[in-house]
Design a protein that fits this description.
Blueprint lengths: L1 H14 L9 H7 L1 H5 L1 H11 L9 H6 L1 H4 L2
């Protein structure tokens, strides 16, 4: 479990280009190959995992999302 958490945290930090502790759709789109190939995928899935509706993913939201499951 700890290895999974470390990998997810590392991925989150790599995605977080502006180091603000949250991920925008742009940041995810730049780093996530499945989304680069199909931008509509992010538009359809992002809102479902943005639990607080702020337009960004927290680490928790990222880990639950399809993008976070890749790591």
């Amino acid at each position: 479990a700890d290895a999974f958490h470390a990998q997810a945290l590392d991925a989150f930090r790599q995605f977080d280009a502006d180091y603000d502790g949250k991920l925008s759709t742009k940041e995810i789109g730049l780093q996530c190959p499945p989304v680069q190939n199909n931008p509509r995928l992010l538009a359809l899935t992002f809102p479902a995992f943005d639990e607080d509706g702020d337009g960004f993913y927290s680490l928790r939201e990222f880990r639950l999302s399809p993008a976070g499951q890749l790591y």
